[in-house]
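Fold this sequence, please.
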Amino acid sequence: MAILGYPSSWRAPFSAVELTFGQGPSTASAGPRSALYVAPKTTAGTGTVNLVYPILKEQDAIDVAGAGSPAHRACRRHLLANKDGKLFLMVYAASSGSGVATATGTITLTFTSGSNPTATGVLTTTICGEQITTGFTTASTLTTIAAALAEQINFKTHLPVTASASVGVVTLTAKVAGASQGDGTVGVIRFRSIPDPGKNLVAATSGNALGLGTGTPGADGATTETANLTTALNGLTNSRYYYMGFTVWSSTALAPIKTHISNKSEPNPGLRSRGFTAYTGTLTALQTLAISANHERRHFVHQEASEWDAADLVGNAMAVHQKAESVTGGFVHDNYRDADWMCPAVYDPSDRPTGTEINDSVTDGIIQIASDEFGSFMVMSVNSRSKDSGGTLDDFRATETHRVSFMDYVADTWLLRDGVQYGTGFKLQADQLRPDGTVNFNQFVPARTLTPSLYKPFPASLISEFVRDGLLQDEASWLASLRCYIDPLNSGRLGASASGRTIDIRHQLEVRLVETSPG
Protein backbone atom coordinates (compact mmCIF):
# COMPACT_ATOMS: atom_id res chain seq x y z
CA MET A 1 0.00 0.00 0.00
CA ALA A 2 1.82 3.09 -1.23
CA ILE A 3 1.77 6.23 0.88
CA LEU A 4 -0.40 9.04 -0.48
CA GLY A 5 1.43 11.08 -3.13
CA TYR A 6 4.24 8.54 -3.59
CA PRO A 7 3.21 5.58 -5.78
CA SER A 8 5.56 2.61 -6.01
CA SER A 9 6.74 3.99 -9.34
CA TRP A 10 8.26 7.01 -7.55
CA ARG A 11 12.03 6.44 -7.53
CA ALA A 12 13.59 9.67 -6.23
CA PRO A 13 14.82 9.40 -2.61
CA PHE A 14 12.42 10.68 0.06
CA SER A 15 11.23 10.22 3.62
CA ALA A 16 7.56 10.91 4.28
CA VAL A 17 4.83 10.28 6.81
CA GLU A 18 1.09 9.98 6.36
CA LEU A 19 -1.01 10.76 9.42
CA THR A 20 -4.65 9.83 9.76
CA PHE A 21 -6.83 11.72 12.24
CA GLY A 22 -10.19 10.19 13.04
CA GLN A 23 -11.23 9.01 9.62
CA GLY A 24 -9.35 11.37 7.28
CA PRO A 25 -5.79 11.89 6.03
CA SER A 26 -3.29 14.54 6.91
CA THR A 27 0.55 14.47 6.73
CA ALA A 28 4.54 14.78 6.58
CA SER A 29 8.25 15.92 6.81
CA ALA A 30 10.53 17.26 9.45
CA GLY A 31 11.53 20.77 10.46
CA PRO A 32 11.37 23.41 13.20
CA ARG A 33 8.07 24.85 14.33
CA SER A 34 8.48 28.32 12.97
CA ALA A 35 5.72 30.91 12.59
CA LEU A 36 4.92 32.93 9.47
CA TYR A 37 2.40 35.71 8.94
CA VAL A 38 1.11 36.43 5.47
CA ALA A 39 -0.67 39.79 5.54
CA PRO A 40 -1.01 43.12 3.73
CA LYS A 41 1.48 45.97 4.01
CA THR A 42 1.05 49.72 3.70
CA THR A 43 2.87 51.79 1.11
CA ALA A 44 5.26 52.87 3.88
CA GLY A 45 6.58 49.33 4.21
CA THR A 46 9.85 48.83 2.33
CA GLY A 47 9.58 45.05 2.07
CA THR A 48 9.22 43.39 -1.33
CA VAL A 49 5.92 41.59 -1.69
CA ASN A 50 5.91 37.79 -1.74
CA LEU A 51 9.34 37.46 -0.10
CA VAL A 52 9.87 35.98 3.36
CA TYR A 53 11.63 38.11 5.98
CA PRO A 54 12.87 36.99 9.40
CA ILE A 55 11.41 39.11 12.20
CA LEU A 56 13.63 39.44 15.26
CA LYS A 57 12.07 42.58 16.73
CA GLU A 58 9.04 44.80 16.15
CA GLN A 59 11.03 47.34 14.15
CA ASP A 60 11.75 44.64 11.56
CA ALA A 61 8.00 44.24 10.97
CA ILE A 62 7.55 48.02 10.79
CA ASP A 63 10.30 48.32 8.21
CA VAL A 64 8.95 45.50 6.06
CA ALA A 65 5.21 46.10 6.36
CA GLY A 66 4.70 49.69 7.52
CA ALA A 67 3.63 50.83 10.98
CA GLY A 68 0.04 49.92 11.82
CA SER A 69 -0.40 47.53 8.92
CA PRO A 70 -2.13 44.21 9.65
CA ALA A 71 1.22 42.49 9.04
CA HIS A 72 2.98 44.70 11.59
CA ARG A 73 0.20 44.36 14.14
CA ALA A 74 0.14 40.55 13.95
CA CYS A 75 3.92 40.35 14.39
CA ARG A 76 3.77 42.91 17.22
CA ARG A 77 1.30 40.82 19.18
CA HIS A 78 3.27 37.66 18.49
CA LEU A 79 6.49 39.15 19.82
CA LEU A 80 4.77 40.52 22.92
CA ALA A 81 3.47 37.03 23.73
CA ASN A 82 6.41 34.92 22.59
CA LYS A 83 9.55 36.96 22.04
CA ASP A 84 11.71 33.85 21.64
CA GLY A 85 9.62 32.19 18.93
CA LYS A 86 11.08 31.80 15.45
CA LEU A 87 9.08 34.35 13.43
CA PHE A 88 8.86 35.24 9.74
CA LEU A 89 6.75 37.60 7.65
CA MET A 90 5.60 37.68 4.05
CA VAL A 91 3.71 40.77 2.91
CA TYR A 92 1.51 41.46 -0.07
CA ALA A 93 -0.10 44.63 -1.38
CA ALA A 94 -3.54 45.71 -0.22
CA SER A 95 -6.50 45.75 -2.58
CA SER A 96 -6.34 48.40 -5.26
CA GLY A 97 -7.82 49.50 -8.56
CA SER A 98 -11.25 50.56 -9.68
CA GLY A 99 -13.87 50.49 -6.95
CA VAL A 100 -11.50 50.19 -4.00
CA ALA A 101 -12.64 51.88 -0.79
CA THR A 102 -11.01 52.38 2.59
CA ALA A 103 -13.02 51.90 5.77
CA THR A 104 -13.57 55.07 7.79
CA GLY A 105 -15.35 56.23 10.90
CA THR A 106 -15.87 59.57 12.61
CA ILE A 107 -15.89 61.00 16.12
CA THR A 108 -18.03 64.13 16.21
CA LEU A 109 -17.63 66.52 19.14
CA THR A 110 -20.28 69.04 20.12
CA PHE A 111 -21.18 71.23 23.09
CA THR A 112 -24.54 70.97 24.77
CA SER A 113 -24.56 74.76 24.81
CA GLY A 114 -22.09 77.57 24.25
CA SER A 115 -18.64 77.15 22.72
CA ASN A 116 -16.45 75.81 25.54
CA PRO A 117 -16.42 73.11 28.21
CA THR A 118 -17.84 74.22 31.52
CA ALA A 119 -15.00 72.59 33.48
CA THR A 120 -11.66 70.88 33.00
CA GLY A 121 -11.98 67.25 32.05
CA VAL A 122 -10.84 64.35 29.89
CA LEU A 123 -12.10 62.80 26.64
CA THR A 124 -11.35 59.05 26.67
CA THR A 125 -11.09 57.46 23.24
CA THR A 126 -10.54 53.74 22.68
CA ILE A 127 -9.26 52.30 19.39
CA CYS A 128 -8.62 48.56 19.09
CA GLY A 129 -8.70 48.29 22.87
CA GLU A 130 -6.12 51.04 23.44
CA GLN A 131 -7.17 54.07 25.47
CA ILE A 132 -6.22 57.62 24.54
CA THR A 133 -6.99 60.42 26.98
CA THR A 134 -7.30 63.95 25.70
CA GLY A 135 -7.50 66.70 28.29
CA PHE A 136 -9.53 69.87 27.88
CA THR A 137 -10.09 73.09 29.83
CA THR A 138 -12.71 75.81 29.87
CA ALA A 139 -10.68 77.58 27.17
CA SER A 140 -10.75 74.62 24.79
CA THR A 141 -12.83 74.64 21.62
CA LEU A 142 -14.16 71.86 19.45
CA THR A 143 -11.37 72.57 16.99
CA THR A 144 -8.57 72.38 19.56
CA ILE A 145 -9.95 69.24 21.25
CA ALA A 146 -10.37 67.44 17.92
CA ALA A 147 -6.92 68.48 16.75
CA ALA A 148 -5.33 67.27 19.99
CA LEU A 149 -7.13 63.93 19.74
CA ALA A 150 -6.08 63.41 16.12
CA GLU A 151 -2.48 64.22 17.01
CA GLN A 152 -2.48 61.68 19.85
CA ILE A 153 -3.94 58.97 17.62
CA ASN A 154 -1.35 59.58 14.92
CA PHE A 155 1.41 59.51 17.50
CA LYS A 156 0.52 55.88 18.23
CA THR A 157 1.80 54.65 14.91
CA HIS A 158 1.09 50.98 15.71
CA LEU A 159 -2.66 51.67 15.55
CA PRO A 160 -4.38 50.54 12.33
CA VAL A 161 -5.79 54.00 11.58
CA THR A 162 -4.76 57.53 10.77
CA ALA A 163 -6.72 60.50 12.08
CA SER A 164 -7.57 63.91 10.68
CA ALA A 165 -9.51 66.72 12.38
CA SER A 166 -11.77 69.43 11.02
CA VAL A 167 -14.19 71.65 12.94
CA GLY A 168 -14.73 69.23 15.81
CA VAL A 169 -14.87 66.08 13.67
CA VAL A 170 -12.10 63.48 13.83
CA THR A 171 -12.07 61.11 10.86
CA LEU A 172 -10.42 57.73 11.35
CA THR A 173 -9.19 56.01 8.19
CA ALA A 174 -7.88 52.46 8.01
CA LYS A 175 -4.24 52.26 6.95
CA VAL A 176 -5.06 49.45 4.53
CA ALA A 177 -7.72 49.73 1.84
CA GLY A 178 -10.25 47.02 1.13
CA ALA A 179 -13.01 45.05 2.82
CA SER A 180 -10.77 43.26 5.33
CA GLN A 181 -10.70 46.29 7.63
CA GLY A 182 -14.50 46.50 7.83
CA ASP A 183 -16.98 45.82 5.05
CA GLY A 184 -20.08 47.42 6.56
CA THR A 185 -21.26 44.14 8.11
CA VAL A 186 -18.32 42.90 10.17
CA GLY A 187 -16.71 45.47 12.44
CA VAL A 188 -12.95 44.91 12.58
CA ILE A 189 -11.47 48.15 13.97
CA ARG A 190 -13.66 49.12 16.91
CA PHE A 191 -13.60 52.57 18.50
CA ARG A 192 -15.53 54.81 20.89
CA SER A 193 -15.06 58.18 22.55
CA ILE A 194 -16.50 59.15 25.94
CA PRO A 195 -16.03 62.58 27.63
CA ASP A 196 -16.22 63.16 31.34
CA PRO A 197 -19.87 63.76 32.20
CA GLY A 198 -21.24 67.17 33.17
CA LYS A 199 -18.57 69.17 31.32
CA ASN A 200 -20.76 70.33 28.39
CA LEU A 201 -18.84 68.13 25.89
CA VAL A 202 -20.61 65.44 23.83
CA ALA A 203 -18.96 62.83 21.57
CA ALA A 204 -20.80 60.78 18.96
CA THR A 205 -19.32 58.12 16.68
CA SER A 206 -20.41 57.03 13.23
CA GLY A 207 -20.70 53.46 14.51
CA ASN A 208 -19.04 50.92 16.76
CA ALA A 209 -16.32 50.19 14.24
CA LEU A 210 -14.91 51.54 11.01
CA GLY A 211 -17.34 50.94 8.17
CA LEU A 212 -20.37 50.44 10.42
CA GLY A 213 -23.26 52.87 10.87
CA THR A 214 -22.61 56.00 8.82
CA GLY A 215 -18.94 55.16 8.38
CA THR A 216 -17.56 54.33 4.95
CA PRO A 217 -17.31 50.56 4.42
CA GLY A 218 -14.11 49.16 3.00
CA ALA A 219 -14.41 47.52 -0.40
CA ASP A 220 -12.00 45.64 -2.62
CA GLY A 221 -11.07 47.08 -5.96
CA ALA A 222 -10.36 45.40 -9.28
CA THR A 223 -7.27 43.83 -7.72
CA THR A 224 -8.64 42.09 -4.66
CA GLU A 225 -6.80 41.26 -1.47
CA THR A 226 -7.66 37.60 -2.05
CA ALA A 227 -5.87 37.69 -5.40
CA ASN A 228 -2.76 39.19 -3.83
CA LEU A 229 -2.90 36.66 -0.98
CA THR A 230 -3.23 33.77 -3.42
CA THR A 231 -0.16 34.96 -5.34
CA ALA A 232 1.78 35.17 -2.07
CA LEU A 233 0.74 31.64 -1.11
CA ASN A 234 1.90 30.33 -4.47
CA GLY A 235 5.40 31.42 -3.49
CA LEU A 236 5.23 29.28 -0.33
CA THR A 237 4.20 26.01 -1.91
CA ASN A 238 7.62 24.44 -1.33
CA SER A 239 8.41 26.05 2.04
CA ARG A 240 7.43 24.79 5.47
CA TYR A 241 6.34 27.17 8.19
CA TYR A 242 4.48 25.16 10.79
CA TYR A 243 2.31 28.01 12.11
CA MET A 244 0.82 30.24 9.42
CA GLY A 245 -1.21 33.30 10.42
CA PHE A 246 -3.51 35.40 8.25
CA THR A 247 -5.45 38.60 8.95
CA VAL A 248 -8.24 38.01 6.41
CA TRP A 249 -11.58 36.57 7.46
CA SER A 250 -14.03 36.51 4.52
CA SER A 251 -15.13 33.21 2.98
CA THR A 252 -13.52 34.22 -0.31
CA ALA A 253 -10.14 34.89 1.27
CA LEU A 254 -10.26 31.80 3.49
CA ALA A 255 -10.69 29.39 0.57
CA PRO A 256 -7.12 29.65 -0.81
CA ILE A 257 -5.73 29.35 2.72
CA LYS A 258 -7.39 25.98 3.28
CA THR A 259 -6.28 24.79 -0.16
CA HIS A 260 -2.70 25.85 0.53
CA ILE A 261 -2.52 24.27 4.00
CA SER A 262 -4.20 21.07 2.86
CA ASN A 263 -2.13 20.56 -0.28
CA LYS A 264 1.28 21.26 1.23
CA SER A 265 0.54 19.05 4.23
CA GLU A 266 0.10 15.89 2.17
CA PRO A 267 3.01 13.39 2.26
CA ASN A 268 4.11 14.89 -1.04
CA PRO A 269 5.40 17.57 -0.52
CA GLY A 270 5.14 16.76 3.19
CA LEU A 271 5.29 20.33 4.50
CA ARG A 272 2.82 19.93 7.36
CA SER A 273 1.48 23.30 8.50
CA ARG A 274 -1.44 24.77 10.45
CA GLY A 275 -3.35 27.90 9.50
CA PHE A 276 -4.74 30.47 11.97
CA THR A 277 -7.31 33.18 11.24
CA ALA A 278 -9.50 35.34 13.48
CA TYR A 279 -13.04 36.68 13.28
CA THR A 280 -14.85 39.47 15.12
CA GLY A 281 -18.34 39.05 13.64
CA THR A 282 -21.20 36.90 14.86
CA LEU A 283 -20.76 33.31 15.95
CA THR A 284 -23.42 32.16 13.50
CA ALA A 285 -21.45 33.58 10.59
CA LEU A 286 -18.20 32.00 11.75
CA GLN A 287 -19.82 28.61 12.31
CA THR A 288 -20.64 28.54 8.62
CA LEU A 289 -17.01 29.32 7.73
CA ALA A 290 -15.50 26.82 10.18
CA ILE A 291 -17.83 23.98 9.23
CA SER A 292 -17.12 24.66 5.57
CA ALA A 293 -13.39 24.30 6.25
CA ASN A 294 -13.77 21.18 8.46
CA HIS A 295 -10.02 20.59 8.45
CA GLU A 296 -7.69 19.43 11.23
CA ARG A 297 -5.06 22.02 10.27
CA ARG A 298 -7.31 25.11 10.23
CA HIS A 299 -7.86 27.16 13.38
CA PHE A 300 -10.53 29.85 13.73
CA VAL A 301 -10.19 32.29 16.65
CA HIS A 302 -13.39 34.11 17.59
CA GLN A 303 -14.33 37.03 19.79
CA GLU A 304 -17.51 38.75 18.73
CA ALA A 305 -17.34 42.56 19.01
CA SER A 306 -13.71 42.23 20.04
CA GLU A 307 -11.81 45.27 21.22
CA TRP A 308 -8.97 43.95 19.05
CA ASP A 309 -8.82 43.66 15.28
CA ALA A 310 -8.25 40.36 13.46
CA ALA A 311 -4.47 40.94 13.31
CA ASP A 312 -4.23 41.34 17.10
CA LEU A 313 -6.33 38.25 17.78
CA VAL A 314 -4.53 35.93 15.39
CA GLY A 315 -1.11 37.24 16.46
CA ASN A 316 -1.66 36.58 20.15
CA ALA A 317 -3.40 33.22 19.67
CA MET A 318 -0.78 31.82 17.31
CA ALA A 319 2.08 32.99 19.53
CA VAL A 320 0.53 31.25 22.53
CA HIS A 321 0.27 28.00 20.57
CA GLN A 322 3.85 28.24 19.35
CA LYS A 323 5.08 28.90 22.89
CA ALA A 324 3.02 26.22 24.64
CA GLU A 325 3.72 23.56 22.03
CA SER A 326 7.47 24.20 21.99
CA VAL A 327 7.72 21.93 25.04
CA THR A 328 7.53 18.18 24.46
CA GLY A 329 3.97 17.20 25.29
CA GLY A 330 3.02 20.86 25.71
CA PHE A 331 -0.42 22.17 24.78
CA VAL A 332 -2.67 25.19 25.30
CA HIS A 333 -4.74 24.34 28.34
CA ASP A 334 -8.44 25.07 28.76
CA ASN A 335 -9.64 28.51 29.89
CA TYR A 336 -6.24 29.92 28.96
CA ARG A 337 -5.54 33.32 30.48
CA ASP A 338 -1.82 33.07 31.27
CA ALA A 339 0.32 36.21 31.27
CA ASP A 340 1.05 35.92 27.55
CA TRP A 341 -2.67 36.16 26.73
CA MET A 342 -3.34 39.92 26.65
CA CYS A 343 -6.67 40.33 24.88
CA PRO A 344 -9.13 42.56 26.78
CA ALA A 345 -12.68 41.51 27.56
CA VAL A 346 -15.40 42.70 25.22
CA TYR A 347 -16.67 46.16 26.11
CA ASP A 348 -20.39 45.39 26.27
CA PRO A 349 -21.23 42.50 28.66
CA SER A 350 -24.15 41.58 26.41
CA ASP A 351 -21.60 40.56 23.76
CA ARG A 352 -20.08 37.89 26.00
CA PRO A 353 -20.81 34.37 24.71
CA THR A 354 -23.28 32.34 26.74
CA GLY A 355 -22.53 28.84 27.97
CA THR A 356 -24.54 27.41 25.08
CA GLU A 357 -22.65 29.55 22.57
CA ILE A 358 -19.32 28.46 24.05
CA ASN A 359 -20.31 24.82 23.74
CA ASP A 360 -21.52 25.40 20.17
CA SER A 361 -18.16 27.00 19.36
CA VAL A 362 -16.14 24.07 20.67
CA THR A 363 -18.44 21.55 19.00
CA ASP A 364 -18.01 23.35 15.66
CA GLY A 365 -14.21 23.61 15.92
CA ILE A 366 -13.87 27.28 16.93
CA ILE A 367 -11.39 28.68 19.46
CA GLN A 368 -13.79 30.86 21.42
CA ILE A 369 -12.55 33.89 23.37
CA ALA A 370 -14.86 34.34 26.33
CA SER A 371 -14.98 37.28 28.74
CA ASP A 372 -15.67 37.84 32.42
CA GLU A 373 -14.96 40.52 35.01
CA PHE A 374 -11.26 39.58 35.04
CA GLY A 375 -10.67 39.83 31.29
CA SER A 376 -10.79 37.39 28.41
CA PHE A 377 -9.62 33.81 28.00
CA MET A 378 -9.35 31.10 25.35
CA VAL A 379 -11.97 28.53 26.28
CA MET A 380 -10.45 25.54 24.47
CA SER A 381 -7.90 25.07 21.71
CA VAL A 382 -9.52 23.22 18.82
CA ASN A 383 -9.23 22.91 15.06
CA SER A 384 -12.10 22.99 12.62
CA ARG A 385 -12.17 19.23 11.94
CA SER A 386 -15.40 18.85 13.92
CA LYS A 387 -17.65 17.08 11.42
CA ASP A 388 -17.76 13.90 9.38
CA SER A 389 -16.46 13.88 5.81
CA GLY A 390 -19.81 15.20 4.61
CA GLY A 391 -19.61 18.18 6.97
CA THR A 392 -22.97 17.51 8.64
CA LEU A 393 -22.58 15.17 11.61
CA ASP A 394 -20.57 16.07 14.70
CA ASP A 395 -17.36 14.02 14.84
CA PHE A 396 -15.00 15.31 17.53
CA ARG A 397 -12.24 12.70 17.20
CA ALA A 398 -9.67 14.99 15.56
CA THR A 399 -10.86 18.40 16.79
CA GLU A 400 -8.66 18.76 19.88
CA THR A 401 -5.55 20.67 18.81
CA HIS A 402 -3.11 18.56 20.82
CA ARG A 403 -3.90 15.48 18.73
CA VAL A 404 -2.52 17.11 15.60
CA SER A 405 0.34 18.80 17.44
CA PHE A 406 1.43 15.60 19.19
CA MET A 407 1.25 13.46 16.06
CA ASP A 408 3.24 16.07 14.15
CA TYR A 409 5.88 15.87 16.87
CA VAL A 410 5.92 12.07 16.59
CA ALA A 411 6.30 12.26 12.82
CA ASP A 412 8.97 14.97 12.89
CA THR A 413 11.00 13.17 15.54
CA TRP A 414 10.81 9.86 13.70
CA LEU A 415 11.97 11.39 10.41
CA LEU A 416 14.67 13.47 12.04
CA ARG A 417 16.21 10.58 13.96
CA ASP A 418 15.90 8.23 11.02
CA GLY A 419 17.79 10.76 8.95
CA VAL A 420 20.56 10.95 11.52
CA GLN A 421 20.83 7.19 12.06
CA TYR A 422 20.03 5.75 8.64
CA GLY A 423 20.01 8.77 6.34
CA THR A 424 22.81 7.87 3.92
CA GLY A 425 24.83 4.90 2.80
CA PHE A 426 22.56 2.10 3.96
CA LYS A 427 21.62 -0.97 1.92
CA LEU A 428 18.34 -2.82 2.09
CA GLN A 429 17.52 -6.49 1.81
CA ALA A 430 14.46 -8.62 2.47
CA ASP A 431 14.16 -10.76 5.56
CA GLN A 432 14.74 -14.47 5.18
CA LEU A 433 11.73 -16.44 6.35
CA ARG A 434 11.55 -19.87 7.92
CA PRO A 435 9.11 -22.47 6.55
CA ASP A 436 6.56 -21.39 9.17
CA GLY A 437 6.69 -17.80 7.88
CA THR A 438 8.60 -16.32 10.80
CA VAL A 439 11.77 -14.28 10.35
CA ASN A 440 15.06 -16.15 10.45
CA PHE A 441 17.01 -13.99 12.91
CA ASN A 442 20.15 -15.98 12.16
CA GLN A 443 20.17 -14.73 8.56
CA PHE A 444 23.36 -13.15 7.27
CA VAL A 445 23.12 -9.37 6.96
CA PRO A 446 26.08 -7.39 5.54
CA ALA A 447 27.40 -4.27 7.28
CA ARG A 448 25.28 -1.10 6.92
CA THR A 449 22.38 -3.13 5.62
CA LEU A 450 18.82 -2.99 6.89
CA THR A 451 16.02 -5.53 6.82
CA PRO A 452 12.48 -4.85 8.03
CA SER A 453 13.11 -6.88 11.17
CA LEU A 454 16.33 -5.02 11.94
CA TYR A 455 14.59 -1.66 11.47
CA LYS A 456 11.57 -2.49 13.65
CA PRO A 457 13.26 -1.94 17.05
CA PHE A 458 13.98 1.66 16.03
CA PRO A 459 10.31 2.80 15.77
CA ALA A 460 9.40 0.53 18.69
CA SER A 461 11.79 2.42 20.95
CA LEU A 462 10.40 5.72 19.70
CA ILE A 463 6.85 4.64 20.49
CA SER A 464 7.89 3.71 24.02
CA GLU A 465 9.56 7.11 24.40
CA PHE A 466 6.46 8.95 23.16
CA VAL A 467 4.31 7.07 25.66
CA ARG A 468 6.68 8.05 28.49
CA ASP A 469 6.59 11.67 27.34
CA GLY A 470 2.80 11.75 27.52
CA LEU A 471 2.16 12.02 23.79
CA LEU A 472 0.67 8.59 23.16
CA GLN A 473 -1.23 6.08 25.30
CA ASP A 474 -1.61 2.29 25.36
CA GLU A 475 1.92 1.35 24.36
CA ALA A 476 0.98 -2.30 23.89
CA SER A 477 -1.58 -1.47 21.20
CA TRP A 478 0.84 0.77 19.32
CA LEU A 479 3.56 -1.88 19.40
CA ALA A 480 1.15 -4.65 18.43
CA SER A 481 0.17 -2.69 15.33
CA LEU A 482 3.74 -1.87 14.29
CA ARG A 483 4.65 -3.30 10.89
CA CYS A 484 7.86 -2.94 8.87
CA TYR A 485 8.05 -4.11 5.26
CA ILE A 486 9.60 -3.63 1.83
CA ASP A 487 7.31 -2.39 -0.92
CA PRO A 488 6.78 -5.41 -3.23
CA LEU A 489 6.72 -3.08 -6.24
CA ASN A 490 9.74 -1.01 -5.20
CA SER A 491 12.62 -2.95 -3.65
CA GLY A 492 14.34 0.23 -2.48
CA ARG A 493 11.46 1.39 -0.28
CA LEU A 494 11.40 0.48 3.40
CA GLY A 495 8.01 1.05 4.96
CA ALA A 496 6.68 1.18 8.50
CA SER A 497 3.19 1.66 9.88
CA ALA A 498 1.58 1.84 13.31
CA SER A 499 -1.73 2.97 14.73
CA GLY A 500 -3.03 3.92 18.14
CA ARG A 501 -4.31 6.73 20.33
CA THR A 502 -2.77 9.97 21.38
CA ILE A 503 -3.01 10.90 25.05
CA ASP A 504 -6.28 12.50 26.14
CA ILE A 505 -6.70 15.84 27.91
CA ARG A 506 -8.98 16.20 30.90
CA HIS A 507 -11.53 18.83 29.94
CA GLN A 508 -14.41 18.02 32.27
CA LEU A 509 -15.16 16.85 35.79
CA GLU A 510 -18.46 15.32 36.79
CA VAL A 511 -19.31 15.01 40.49
CA ARG A 512 -22.60 13.67 41.75
CA LEU A 513 -23.54 13.99 45.41
CA VAL A 514 -26.76 12.46 46.66
CA GLU A 515 -27.92 13.21 50.19
CA THR A 516 -30.39 10.73 51.62
CA SER A 517 -32.26 11.51 54.83
CA PRO A 518 -34.72 9.09 56.36
CA GLY A 519 -38.36 9.91 55.79
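The CA atoms of residues 4 and 267 lie 6 Å apart. The chain has three domains: 25-93+223-402, 104-205, 425-519.
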